[in-house]
């Protein structure tokens, strides 16, 4: 459910202090955080809040669930990923590493609601895009795309194509539904879903699970 709070939140994120970091800036802050800098941690968090909203465009959120509640959970996952990132060992971008933790936090939250209220049957089909499209400029979309795509090299061609289309990682940066991707690749929506799930498991194992 969209809300006035969400509109205010996305407006706030347009401020310069939330702009994405360049690779060298990110590495510098990571090393400072590793040495105990709370300021560096806060800067890292601020720089990744836009990516979380961008990532949520691929989820279908029921109308009776406030998008801000989902964003809060996703942000907590992102912060957990930052805390676990070891800049002395890892070379991938921070959001590539946090990808698993963000997705896990969202899934746990939505499944918890499902268990408590029996609200959903399927919350990750990608048939609808959550609010945020108007907020993201092309430059912000490109920044998020570049970071997420840094993980895609381990995927097979068909898996990579499906992830790119479903998550809107190519111009015009709009996610497509399972049915739309199936039509493009001449596969059923169910087969697209299966390949998507397999690809996400690969990405999770590559970028996060091996570091647990």
Task: Summarize this structure as a short list of keywords or feature phrases.
212 residues, disordered C terminus
Helix-strand topology string:
HHHHHHHHH
Largest sheet: none
Terminus-to-terminus distance:
34 Å
Helix count, DSSP H or I runs of 4 or more residues = 9
Principal-axis shape equals globular
What does this structure look like?
The longest helix has 24 residues, at 94-117. The protein has helices at 4-12, 23-34, 38-56, 67-84, 94-117, 138-149, 157-166, 178-185, 189-207. It starts with a helix and ends in a 5-residue tail after the last helix. The protein is mainly alpha-helical. It has one domain. It is built from 9 helices and no strands. It is globular, with a radius of gyration of 17 Å.
């Amino acid at each position: 459910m969209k809300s006035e709070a969400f509109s205010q939140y996305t407006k706030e994120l347009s401020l310069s202090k939330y702009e994405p970091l360049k690779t060298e800036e990110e590495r510098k802050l990571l090393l400072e955080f590793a040495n105990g800098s709370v300021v560096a941690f806060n800067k890292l968090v601020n720089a990744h809040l836009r990516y979380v909203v961008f990532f949520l465009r691929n989820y279908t959120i029921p109308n009776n669930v406030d998008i801000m509640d989902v964003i809060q959970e996703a942000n907590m996952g992102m912060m957990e990923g930052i805390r676990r990132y070891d800049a002395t060992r890892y070379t991938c971008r921070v959001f590539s590493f946090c990808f698993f933790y963000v997705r896990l936090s969202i899934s746990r939250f939505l499944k918890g609601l499902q268990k408590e209220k029996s609200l959903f049957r399927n919350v990750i089909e990608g048939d609808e895009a959550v609010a945020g499209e108007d907020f993201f400029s092309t430059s912000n979309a490109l920044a998020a795309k570049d970071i997420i795509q840094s993980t895609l090299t381990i995927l097979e061609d068909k898996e990579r194509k499906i992830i790119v289309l479903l998550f809107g990682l190519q111009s015009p940066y709009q996610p497509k539904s399972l049915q739309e991707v199936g039509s493009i690749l001449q596969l059923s929506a169910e087969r697209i879903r299966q390949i998507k799930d397999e690809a996400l498991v690969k990405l999770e194992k590559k970028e996060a699970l091996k570091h647990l």
